[in-house]
């Protein structure tokens, strides 16, 4: 293999001097390892991040679409491990938290953005991604407000940085604070941006936490529709094109099938195992997309806005699930 013993510093970071074919081989081997039971979601994210810093992502142009499709597939698969009655209960428990946290985050994000003098569209995308469901919300809202590519990249980079941190921090704090499965699931669904990191963190905590957080987070994702509709008026876009997260319908169908069709319940353990492997691979791909160039492109002020929003919603949500739940 064409591997040299030195590395070169560049705008993309400390990239090892390896040939394109070697980069692909390394990447494919790491991705395959993430499909094994030996690699946890947290380790997969870290492994992808190391790839991004030292060997580059050989399929970077396909990364965003690949992670989006794989995440949707994995979330639908997780539905085969849930029950209609417990899912409805989790949804009812999370509805009040969801409404207040989304509205509060959008309002707070507006004022922080003005205070830090961040571009209106960049600030709005960061606030929407923090309030609803991370990259999915940004991807849905950015065409509605006619955001430029750099504005979208900054918002996505900001969200994914804090997603990566949450995957390490939240399970540790959950155990340290002795949160129940339900409390931790609600906290993750409210305070972690992207569905991939929400599910990844909850899966480390327990099955009940995973069920609660997935149900509440996907119910939260439906808020993309009214927020995107509101955005067309705030940013005066006459086209009003809004994309609906149709995979959530398949998720609901999976829950119903697992509850009422015995033949589906027999296959559920295998479908869940495949879904969890898909989720681990998704987090690897997300980590592999966080190159030094992307991290530097975020900039200090948008990063500070994202940090302030994330810290605020995390603390308030934690207090709410402990004292008001």
Can you give a write-up of this model?
- The chain has 325 residues and is mainly α.
- It has one domain.
- It contains 15 helices and two strands.
- The chain has helices at 20-34, 41-54, 60-78, 84-116, 120-131, 135-141, 149-176, 181-191, 195-205, 207-221, 224-234, 247-260, 262-288, 292-298, 300-323; strands at 3-10, 13-18.
- The chain has a two-stranded antiparallel ribbon.
- Helix 7 (149-176) packs across helix 14 (292-298).
- The longest helix is centred in the first third of the chain and has 33 residues, at 84-116.
- The model is unreliable at 1-13 (pLDDT under 50).
Features:
325 residues; mainly alpha; 76% helix; globular; disordered N terminus
Point out poorly predicted stretches. 1-13
What topology, given as strand order, has the largest sheet?
1-2
Percent helix? over 70%
Number of domains: 1
Which radius of gyration do the C-alpha atoms yield? 20 Å
What's a quick, concise take on this entry?
With 325 residues, the protein is mainly α. It has helices at 20-34, 41-54, 60-78, 84-116, 120-131, 135-141, 149-176, 181-191, 195-205, 207-221, 224-234, 247-260, 262-288, 292-298, 300-323, and strands at 3-10, 13-18. A hairpin with a 2-residue loop joins strand 1 and strand 2 (13-18).
Topology:
Layout: E1 3-10, E2 13-18, H1 20-34, H2 41-54, H3 60-78, H4 84-116, H5 120-131, H6 135-141, H7 149-176, H8 181-191, H9 195-205, H10 207-221, H11 224-234, H12 247-260, H13 262-288, H14 292-298, H15 300-323
């Amino acid at each position: 293999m064409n591997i040299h013993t030195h590395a070169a510093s560049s705008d993309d970071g400390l990239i090892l001097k390896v040939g394109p074919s070697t980069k692909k081989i390394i990447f494919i081997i790491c991705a395959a390892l993430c499909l094994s039971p030996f690699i946890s979601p947290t380790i997969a994210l870290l492994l992808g991040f190391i790839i991004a810093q030292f060997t580059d992502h050989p399929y970077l142009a396909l990364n965003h679409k690949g992670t989006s499709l794989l995440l949707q597939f994995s979330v639908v698969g997780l539905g085969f491990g849930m029950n209609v009655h417990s899912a409805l209960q989790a949804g009812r428990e999370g509805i009040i938290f969801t409404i207040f946290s989304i509205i509060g985050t959008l309002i707070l994000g507006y004022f922080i953005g003005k205070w830090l003098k961040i571009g209106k569209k960049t600030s709005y995308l960061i606030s929407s991604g923090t309030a609803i469901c991370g990259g999915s919300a940004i991807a849905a809202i950015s065409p509605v407000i006619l955001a430029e590519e750099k504005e979208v990249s900054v918002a996505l980079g900001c969200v994914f940085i804090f997603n990566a941190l949450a995957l390490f921090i939240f399970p540790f704090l959950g155990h340290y604070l002795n949160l129940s499965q339900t409390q931790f699931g609600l906290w993750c669904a409210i305070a972690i941006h992207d569905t991939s990191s929400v599910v990844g963190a909850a899966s480390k905590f327990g099955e009940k936490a995973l069920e609660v957080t997935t149900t509440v987070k996907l119910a939260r994702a439906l808020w993309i529709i009214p927020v995107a509709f509101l955005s067309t008026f705030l940013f005066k876009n006459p086209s009003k094109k809004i994309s609906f997260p149709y995979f959530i319908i398949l998720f609901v169908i999976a829950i119903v099938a697992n509850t009422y069709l015995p033949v589906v319940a027999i296959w559920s353990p295998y479908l869940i195992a495949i879904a969890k492997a898909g989720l681990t691979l998704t987090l690897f791909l997300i980590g592999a997309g966080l190159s030094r160039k992307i991290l530097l492109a975020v900039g200090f002020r948008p990063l500070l806005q994202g940090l302030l929003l994330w810290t605020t919603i995390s603390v308030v949500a934690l207090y709410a699930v402990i004292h008001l739940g």
